Amino acid sequence: MDVKTAFLHGDLEERILMEQPEGFILKGDEDKVCLLRKSLYGLKKSPRQWNLKFDGFMKKTEFYQK
């Protein structure tokens, strides 16, 4: 398991928009925003989304909590 990038694998259930990161803004597109499809490290919802995905995988492979 790759724990260093675990938070990057959580799927987002709601629509989250963010400002464009510095260095990636194109001239003429300064007012556009980014739509997140996966969670980012530092996003408050990242730990919860990753936990839901991990829990679903464990249950799908027939591991259960006691």
Task: Write structural notes for this entry.
The protein is an alpha+beta fold and 66 residues long. It has one domain (6-60). 23% of the residues lie in helices and 23% in strands. The protein has one helix at residues 46-60, and strands at residues 11-19, 33-38. A two-stranded antiparallel sheet has the order 1-2. 3% of the residues are buried. The mean pLDDT is 81. This is Reverse transcriptase Ty1/copia-type domain-containing protein.
What's the helical proportion of residues? 10-25%
Q: How many distinct domains?
A: 1
The overall pLDDT average reads: 81
Integer-rounded radius of gyration: 16 Å
Structural class of the helix and strand makeup?
A: alpha+beta
Task: Please state how the strands of the largest beta sheet are arranged side by side.
Answer: 1-2
Number of strands: 2
- One letter per element, helices H and strands E, the order comes to EEH
Count of discrete alpha- or pi-helical segments spanning 4 or more residues: 1
Outline? elongated
Strand content: 15-25%
Unreliable stretches, pLDDT < 50, 5 or more residues?
A: none
Terminal residue distance: 22 Å
Oligomeric state of the chains present here? single chain
Main pleated-sheet profile: 2 strands, antiparallel
